[in-house]
Every structure is written in structure tokens, then in C-alpha cells.
Amino acid sequence: MPIPRPLDGRVLLLTGAGGDIGRAMAAAFAFAGAKLAACDLDPDRAEVAAAIAREAGGEAIALALDVTRSESCAAAVKATVKAFGGLSVLVNNAAAFTVRGTVVDLPEEEWHRQMAVNLTGPFLMGKHAIPAIRDTGGGVVVNIASQLGHVGQEGLAAYAAGKAAIHNLTRVMAIDHAKDHIRVVSLSPGAIEGARVRSRFPDDEAMHAYNDRRHVLGRMGRPEEIASAALFLASDAASFMTGADLLVDGGYTAW
Ligand SMILES: NC(=O)c1ccc[n+]([C@@H]2O[C@H](COP(=O)([O-])OP(=O)(O)OC[C@H]3O[C@@H](n4cnc5c(N)ncnc54)[C@H](O)[C@@H]3O)[C@@H](O)[C@H]2O)c1
Asked: N or C: which end of the chain has fewer CB within 10 A?
């Protein structure tokens, strides 16, 4: 008899699936038995994530999704339910490219763009996904936040404020939807090796010189280390967790 896997029989919708952390999560969720809707603003990136999930032995579809548009969120939920017969887990992972700036010099449209993707996105996805999760008999919402939702960093007003808001949105969603048998949790990574952080530095050496020493463990994290934490939160191993944030930040916030 095959050994049961932690996400056997679960249907999972993942936003921002084509990014570094999204691709690692696609592999981990599929390996754990989930049927996956890999969603991204960029349809080619969604396809790559779905292919990674299939290589990991799972069933997966790729969907184009803009989390800032309510009708797009509704369509992605509908397509997922149609493909797999329900929805058990929503992972809100998409995030806008981070343009840095103080409140004085950050352009207003940049503030609104980051808030639209990073904060309004999880609101809109929750609006459309939670009824589907409820109809499936319950499940989990995992909101990917950041260690920078707990502490500040120069020039990150919009990003850090949006991620801090995710922590409290998570608590309120947990309170509101416990009666629907839905757990809502957030996950706060530290700085992870990948394109998002790399894009802010001239080269890898500069990226590590800035980031490594900010973590107690003396290094940046890897996408797989976030994926394994997300898998834990999405599974029944975390069945008594709701309204909580899981820091997976290499000790960034410990000092
Ligand atoms: N990388 C890090 O160091 C780090 C640290 C803390 C938190 N996080 C968080 O982890 C998550 C994933 O980070 P990552 O490094 O993989 O990011 P990434 O930039 O590599 O990927 C983000 C993905 O989101 C997609 N996206 C952007 N706008 C979208 C929209 N409107 N609708 C749907 N998809 C959209 C992009 O196309 C991209 O594929 C993000 O929420 C990020 O804030 C990352």
C-alpha cells in the first residue's frame, strides 16, 4: 500500500507561482500529493511552475492571474474548482517588484502598485477562494508575508507596511473563518537567494555582503527552506495553528 502523503487529496491554488519561492513551493506541494493550480501574472512563468509540479509527480494546471483584479481572481478560483472538483488550500505568494524609496521620494503610483499586489491581492483572493474552500469542507489559507512585516529597513516603506498589514489581515481572517473550518496563517521569510533580492544589487557578492550578516545564521535562505515551511502550514501537521505568523528568517529578527 502506498505511504500517504501530507497533501494527498488536497487542491491547492498558488499565486506568484513562477517566482523563485513559488517554483520551490510548486515542487514541494506536488511531491506532497496536492493537485496544483499554478497561477502567475506571467502565463509563461505559470507554465514553468506547473511543469515543475508535474515533474515532481503531481497533477497541475497553469493559470494566468492578476491578483489586483477581482474578476481575474474569481476566474482563477472557478477554473481550479472546475479542473479538480474543489479547493482546499490558497497560498497568497504573489508580490510586486519592490521599488525602494522613502515616503518623500517614492512615487505615489508605486505605493499604490505595491499595495495593490501585496495587500489587496490577498484580500481579493480570499474574497473568491474562501467560499470555495468552505464548500469543499474547509482548508487553509497561507499568506506569504515577510520578516520586513516585523521590522523596518531603509527605503522599504510600501513593502514593509504592506507585509505588516498581512500579519493582521491573517489574524482577522482566522477569526472570521474558523467557523468555516478554515485555518489562516502567515509565513515570514528572511532574505532568500533569488531574483527578487538579486535585482537590488550589482552582483552576488554585493547581495551577500549586505544580507548575510543580517541573519543570525550568517547566510541568506533558500527557496526550498520556505517551501518546506509552507508545506507544514498547509498540512494537518499544523492543525492547531491559526491566526499565527511563522518566521522562517534565519534569525533576522532575533536581534
Ligand atoms: N525573496 C525574498 O527574499 C523574500 C523575503 C521575504 C518575503 N518574500 C515574499 O515571498 C513571496 C515570493 O517571493 P519571490 O522571491 O519568489 O518573488 P518573485 O519576485 O521571484 O516572484 C513573484 C511572482 O509574483 C508574480 N506576480 C507579480 N505581480 C502579480 C500579480 N499582480 N498577480 C499575480 N502574480 C503576480 C510575478 O510574476 C512573479 O512570478 C513574495 O510574497 C515576497 O514578498 C520574499
From this structure: N
List, in sequence order, the alpha helices (H) in the chain: 20-31, 43-55, 70-84, 108-115, 121-135, 157-177, 195-198, 204-211, 223-234
Beta bridge partners, 13, equal 37, 90
Class of domain 11-247: alpha beta
Residue nearest (by alpha carbon) to ligand 1 atom 40: 95
The position carrying cell 505511504 is: 3
How far, in Å, is the centroid of ligand 1 from the Cα of 178?
Answer: 27
Mutate which of 13, 41, 47 to test ligand 1's pocket (most atoms within 8 Å of Cβ)? Answer: 41
> Which one, of 211, 226, 123, 130, lies nearest residue 178 by Cα?
130
DSSP H helix total and E strand total for the chain = 9, 7
Q: How far, in Å, CA of 214 to CA of 237, rounded? A: 30
Distance of CA 96 from the midpoint of ligand 1 (Å): 6
User: pLDDT truncated to tens, each residue of the chain (255 aa)?
Assistant: 788 999 999 999 999 999 999 999 999 999 999 999 999 999 999 999 999 999 999 999 999 999 999 999 999 999 999 999 999 999 999 999 999 999 999 999 999 999 999 999 999 999 999 999 999 999 999 999 999 999 999 999 999 999 999 999 999 999 999 999 999 999 999 999 999 999 999 999 999 999 999 999 999 999 999 999 999 999 999 999 999 999 999 999 999
d(CA 113, CA 97) in angstroms, rounded, equals 9
